[in-house]
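Worked Example 4.2. Consider the chain below.
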Amino acid sequence: GSADQYVGYSKINLNRSDPTGSASISVPSGLSINNALKLYFVANLEQNYVDTGGNSYADWLNNLVGTSDYATAKTLLKANLQNSGTGFKAPLLMFGETTKASGTKQITINLTRNVSRVDVWPSLTSGTQLSNFEMECAYLWNVNVKNNILDGEMEGPAILQQPQNKKTVDGVGNIEAKLYAFPNKVLLCEADDNITTCLIIGGKYNGQSATSYYRLNLTANGSAQEMLANNRYLIKLKKVNGAGASTPEDAYNSKAGLMDY
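Applying the procedure from the previous section yields the following structure tokens:
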């Protein structure tokens, strides 16, 4: 059959305690289920989809995506950063793909998160603070606002001069499973650029009462950034060399590099 034919969709409900389930699909007229098929699966699409035409989710899915060939559907299937101020929230977009061999009618598909996760430890050891710095919170900046679901390419532009996902530390002082971003590729990262996905970390330096803020690019300056979907990036603080900026905005624009990590 043609690789450009729309197969259809089926909705299933899963839960965290038993994250497995089954679903069935019907192929369109003229295409046999016995054909070899390239199949794409998207989970939590309703909470993350992009539509610029003001359509409801049902209309968008049935009347736009559902009547398109593959090439057109690919341009429509985009994910959105739900809230430019608070960033990603559950449920996160998930994606999987597989090829069904001819003559078979059953497949197994694993769904993975379509976003990158960033965790921060306040020292090289989980939950242990540095002697001269107490981490309080972290933001992500320069987060892409859209992502093409089927090929994982970045839609852009990055959100500039705007913090994403302010998150505070947990009970042991870490920030884990709270910061998420769409994948990002940058050929050359610079200390104060507006395209490299970066952290702004806030905390108390050397016992001071005011919060200091520091910018940390997730990739070393002068190198390329390639944040991938369904990957965890763990930032461990090694050393703080002085008081940071007084605001997250000033830290974002700073080249000071006062944190080693």
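The mean pLDDT is 84. The radius of gyration is 22 Å. Compare this with Example 4.1 before moving on.
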